[in-house]
UniProtKB/TrEMBL annotation, chain A:
Domain of life: Bacteria
Keywords: Amino-acid transport, ATP-binding, Cell membrane, Membrane, Nucleotide-binding, Transport
Protein name from the UniProt record: Ectoine/hydroxyectoine ABC transporter ATP-binding protein EhuA
Organism for this UniProt entry: Streptomyces narbonensis
PANTHER family: AMINO ACID IMPORT ATP-BINDING PROTEIN (PTHR43166), GLUTAMATE_ASPARTATE IMPORT ATP-BINDING PROTEIN GLTL (PTHR43166:SF9)
Length: 259, 224
């Protein structure tokens, strides 16, 4: 695949914490507009992939490319050599990427509307009116038009997570990272969040990288599922195929344990 | 005691002046301390080791040397180097430096207490370090700072009598004058205790209101 058609490319990416290797020379390509779900036992490195992409962690070795350009690194003084990216290099580039977190991480000192308006105004430089209009549209999309003035702490977990989705979308990311977005929710609140995300997946051409244990949701939205174990991809394939007829024993065992 | 009350009446205008000087020293000292607390507290979280190290050194120096000695140094030693400050300015400077150093630990601790996840959410929205601090971290840290700042403010008020030792005509200075002219030591100092207590209560009530407002703004109505 030509590199400009790739939203994300991991080139032999290794991530270590001390002696513990979380990702081990990982190669991963995600096409523009592709929806990829990462599954696997906890500690297998799925969330680390999202955190590296969001620049919340730095790679130990290897290079991450976004939209065909080096992302985790930038050209150094020596031609052809890449050096770890500076905060300035990352500042503009990370705007292509948005993330929704397991614990929502809404800003408790701002109203729901201000949570969504904050970054478009202060990062993208949109006018407050314009950003507020769009924020109201997005909050409508996630079914929370009546909560614009509420404080996040007054909302249920499912409502908070839907605000977080609207907040991420307000930045118009090309790539959206979903990090176990329903894991912290009470079971009866999971559906409302997944319904919103299905809607987003179907209405937009956003590239999705998703870590989840909700296999039904993975099947609905994913083009491809990657099974992780021990920091490596041990099996990958179209969602239906991988979920129906996994070839690896470890995939079968994992799918058996989450169903 | 019989002639204490008439003397007190005659001294009232001077006592009022002294009270004003004490309030002035407290307010100006606290204002300088607040500015220094923010600057030193934030610098001591800098990613650059030299900046962090310099901030830590300043904090440790002004915390580790007595306010009394700092004040005397500014008043008696500094003029020998060719810089003469007004007595009140010496007092305000010493209070600001000393309590600014303590306050910087409050700022540093409060900023560190804001969950890392808040910073991560801000990074995910493309916010740079300055914007994250200003819009996300500090507004939440403020609510955590008010209670410890209240303690420091009352301690600062109670440290202001030291200023009378470098000829600042504050409340303690004026009451001392009253005591020497009347010889009513017990009554004079009892009055002084009462006046400082009254000032401390006013400051305390003000800070409590500030704390409630800060917590409500930070979305922490239900406690921290």
């Amino acid at each position: 695949m030509p590199t400009e058609d790739l939203a994300v490319r991991f080139d032999r990416v290794t991530k270590r914490y001390g002696d513990h290797t979380v990702l081990d020379g990982l190669d991963l390509e995600v096409a523009r507009g592709e929806r990829v779900t990462l599954i696997g036992p906890s500690g297998s490195g799925k969330t680390t992939i999202l955190r590296l992409l969001m620049t919340l962690e730095r790679v130990t070795d290897g290079v991450i490319h976004v939209a065909g350009q080096p992302f985790s690194h930038m050209p150094g003084r020596t031609p052809g050599k890449l050096v770890p990216a500076s905060e300035r290099h990352l500042a503009g580039r990370r705007r292509r990427i948005g993330m929704v977190f397991q614990q929502f991480n809404l800003f408790p000192h701002m109203s729901v509307l201000d949570n969504v308006v904050e970054a478009p105004v202060h990062v993208l430089g949109e006018s407050r009116d314009e950003a507020a209009r769009r924020a109201r549209d997005l909050l409508e999309l996630v079914g929370l038009a009546d909560k614009v003035d509420a404080r996040p702490t007054r909302l249920s977990g499912g409502q908070q997570q839907r605000v977080a989705i609207a907040r991420a979308l307000a930045m118009r990311p090309e790539i959206l990272l979903l990090d176990e977005v329903t894991s912290a929710l009470d079971p009866e609140l999971v559906a409302e969040v997944l319904d919103v995300l299905r809607d987003v997946a179907h209405r937009t051409d956003i590239t999705l990288l998703c870590v989840t244990h909700e296999m039904g949701f993975a099947r609905d939205v994913s083009d491809r599922i990657l099974m992780f174990d021990g920091g490596r991809i041990i099996e990958s394939g179209p969602a239906d195929e991988l979920l129906e007829a996994p070839t690896e024993e470890r995939t079968r065992a994992f799918l058996g344990s989450v169903r | 005691m019989a002639d204490f009350l008439p003397e007190l009446g005659r001294a009232a205008p001077r006592l009022a002046d002294g009270l004003l000087v004490t309030v002035e020293a407290t307010v100006l000292g606290a204002a300088l301390a607040l500015v220094l607390a923010y600057a030193l507290g934030l610098l001591s979280r800098s990613a650059r080791p030299p900046v962090r190290g310099a901030a830590r050194l300043v904090v440790e120096f002004f915390r580790g040397t007595s306010l009394y000695v700092q004040l005397f140094w500014l008043f008696f030693a500094l003029p020998m180097l060719g810089f003469r400050l007004e007595p009140l300015a010496c007092g305000v400077l010493a209070l600001g430096l000393n309590f600014g150093a303590y306050g910087s630990e409050v700022v540093r601790g409060a900023v560190a207490a804001v969950p890392r996840a808040q910073t991560e959410a801000a990074i995910a929205l493309g916010m740079g370090p300055a914007l994250r601090l200003r819009r996300v971290v500090l507004p939440q840290a403020h609510a955590l700072m008010v209670a410890p700042f209240k303690n420091l403010l009352i301690q600062l008020l109670k440290a202001t009598p030291l200023l009378s030792l470098v000829t600042v005509p504050d409340l303690t200075f004026q009451i001392d004058q009253l005591r020497s002219s009347t010889g009513a030591t017990a009554a004079s100092y009892l009055l002084l205790l009462g006046l400082y207590f009254g000032l401390a209560v006013v400051l305390s009530l003000g800070m409590n209101a500030l704390e409630r407002a800060a917590k409500a703004r930070a979305g922490q109505e239900g406690g921290v």
